[in-house]
Amino acid sequence: VGAPEGRLVLAIDVGGTSVKAAVVDADHQILTRARGTSRRGPEILDAIEEVARDALDQLAAADRAAVGYVGVAMLGLVDPERGVCVRSVNLGLDELEVTGPLRERLGLPVALIHDVLAAGLAEVRLGRPDLVDPFVVVIGTGIAAVTFIGGAPVAGVTGQAGELGHVVVRPDGPACACGSRGCLEAVASAAAVARRYTELSGREVAGALEVFDRIDSDPLADQVWDETASALADGLLTVVTLLAPGALVLGGGLADAGDVLTDRVRRMLSERSRVNPVPPVVHARLGSGAGLLGAALLAHDRLTELPASASPAAPHQAPPGTVR
Amino acid sequence: VGAPEGRLVLAIDVGGTSVKAAVVDADHQILTRARGTSRRGPEILDAIEEVARDALDQLAAADRAAVGYVGVAMLGLVDPERGVCVRSVNLGLDELEVTGPLRERLGLPVALIHDVLAAGLAEVRLGRPDLVDPFVVVIGTGIAAVTFIGGAPVAGVTGQAGELGHVVVRPDGPACACGSRGCLEAVASAAAVARRYTELSGREVAGALEVFDRIDSDPLADQVWDETASALADGLLTVVTLLAPGALVLGGGLADAGDVLTDRVRRMLSERSRVNPVPPVVHARLGSGAGLLGAALLAHDRLTELPASASPAAPHQAPPGTVR
Known about the structure:
Shape of chain A: globular
Oligomer: homodimer
Helix content of chain A: 25-40%
Number of strands of chain A: 13
């Protein structure tokens, strides 16, 4: 005997370099895991299918039948209602149908969600349920965020709110991939940290964490880390000024480096904030698995709603007048 | 015979230079008006009482009895639940009780609201009810804003969200009264426009509108207007990037100058926005009376709620889980 029917979900997190999948139970426990490499263009669907089957095949036959929904977290601009990836520069996608084809390939209903929103949902519901109206930032290769008001994420009319990575913090700063100049992402993402260190030192590094490891032994590493914290503090200062959130939650690969970043950001924010008091600046608890857990949350939510409706509204695009 | 009992409200708008009052009916029509000069410190209560009595005394006796609630819109940081002006630099106030003393002096229940929130409420409910999730900016002596999601204003955990005037748009720009540097308010408020023109031309001007009148005849006036629009566009770009609102509504004295500002801001925003499409940039419809009408809306809302509860929650600080 396995889990009762429809009590398990398949969660998939589609990133720019890897595709991760997991079968997750109703208590948010991961039963099986699988991982593969992302592919550019429509072939991403093949990559997703392979990783999905890998995770499903590890289940006992009885459990396989208990999987009732698939949740897909995806980077880029996604339209959850249409089940489409509208655009992803990293994956080379433009209007790719995701939920329809995957439903056909896997024989299960599929729901789609933006990866940062998924990570934020998981962090707020599972990692830090104690926080009121938190603003959750994911600092990795890029920087994105989601703000929660009254327990629900704010999507904006485009579904694309929370683009903290493209708030301009250094008007004369480096060019950003988006076409602007001095975006937070161009100055304070993991990629930007490595780039800046190489620019200052002439030394190539494998990534931001290598720069992090040189703090205290290499003044240039210290300088880069300070510049990064300062830019993040400026971006978050704008958030505090405009939204007055109840907490700032820092997650993603760069924040996972430890308290060094969180501590500096907190101190700089406190020095600079004038209008609104600085809320607690805390570390995300779930780490890099947050996107996967958020996709599982979405799938479980849908599973619960299934008897009522075969196609419920996406949870972060509530109809007018409901909690946002 | 006058209006039926409890169908009229007394609305008061307390600004840095003047106190305005009006008796308003349930159809948002103004029956009487009064105006006086603001005073600094606790004497502001005397000024409010005098102007309030002036507006009430103009009513016929029968209508006087129909006034059932007082709504006070006030600048600075206000705490609607406690009925206190927590701080107002312009009025020299620090923890001044407002609703209690006024209730005693006027013999009517009193509700308090932040003036920009009041103006935004009026604009959204009466001026532009067609807009979805608008971001409303008031550009006057200072710059403040309020964002609406699902029909309700976002207050933030401090009640002080929407401080667009203190978003830094020119990191090396002029000092702001708040202690920061390059805040939008220090570059693009009506006061900043006049100051900048004087700085460039050496000529004193009465105010921003005089600079506006010189556009096309004085290149320096043109330059100042362009700088102002550019700074506003940068501030609003951040709003579009973070919140993806359904519309940007520009109001206040400077926006009332005409389409010149709105047109330039719209064009610059479109040129600069990369991540989210620019929503409609529209002109506020209510003009300088919006704060007064918003105070009247608050008072009418309270009047309607009165039978259910003698002390209803402030409409913009909804309990957790309700529409924000």
